[in-house]
């Protein structure tokens, strides 16, 4: 989503996406040091978070901020999160996948229960007008339609070559090869991709 929003805001020009790491373009709200990055950014800002709605609700009430909430099949989330735990040195090393899955289902992982997280955000449908709900699977099946929907929501519709460039840049192969996106530039003592 960080890539899509960056490209929408830059009218399909991938230059920024190819030269600035996504964590600098769209810092994680819960990451140490992100406040300084956000304060130094002028104009519209792209902020990334995995925080549950209840921790952001007061900040969003009456806010003009636009929120894009991406949900994903919990089976895929559990597998992906397990592998992320194996790479990320700042998270507890998971034992077996079965044990990790038990913790995931109990909600005793970072950010808590996936089920409560999704319920917290989706319960705001119709309450908060500034939230777009989209699924990872929806984007995977129809990236163009999803990108058109997202750009329309951000009041920055992509047309012609802007959309074509964005779709090309957000392809799986392009993003896999882009060091600004795939987190391979993060020091090995923080995230080990081997």
UniProtKB/TrEMBL annotation:
Its EC number is 2.8.2.-. It is an enzyme of class 2 (transferase). It holds the Pfam family Sulfotransfer_1. The keyword Metal-binding does not apply. Transmembrane segments: none annotated. One of its GO terms (molecular function) is sulfotransferase activity. The keyword Transferase applies. Residues 1-193 form the Sulfotransferase domain. Keywords: Transferase. Belongs to the sulfotransferase 1 family. PANTHER family: SULFOTRANSFERASE SULT (PTHR11783). This is Sulfotransferase. The lineage of its organism: Eukaryota, Metazoa, Chordata, Craniata, Vertebrata.
């Amino acid at each position: 989503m960080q890539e899509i929003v960056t490209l929408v805001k830059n009218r399909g020009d991938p230059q920024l996406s190819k030269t600035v790491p996504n964590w600098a373009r769209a810092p994680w709200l819960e990451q140490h040091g992100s406040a300084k990055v956000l304060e130094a950014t002028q104009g519209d800002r792209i902020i990334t978070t995995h925080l549950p709605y209840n921790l952001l609700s007061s900040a969003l009430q009456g806010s003009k901020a636009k929120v894009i909430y991406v949900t994903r099949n919990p089976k895929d989330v559990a597998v992906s999160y397990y592998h992320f735990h194996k790479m990320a040195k700042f998270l507890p090393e998971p034992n077996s996948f079965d044990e990790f899955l038990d913790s995931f289902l109990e909600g005793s992982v970072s950010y808590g229960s996936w089920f409560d997280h999704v319920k917290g955000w989706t319960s705001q449908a119709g309450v908060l007008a500034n939230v777009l709900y989209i699924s990872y699977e929806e984007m995977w099946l129809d990236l163009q339609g999803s990108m058109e929907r997202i750009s329309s929501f951000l009041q920055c519709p992509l047309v012609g070559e802007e959309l074509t460039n964005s779709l090309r840049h957000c392809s799986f192969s392009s993003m896999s090869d882009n060091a600004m996106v795939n987190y391979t530039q993060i020091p090995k003592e923080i995230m080990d991709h081997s």
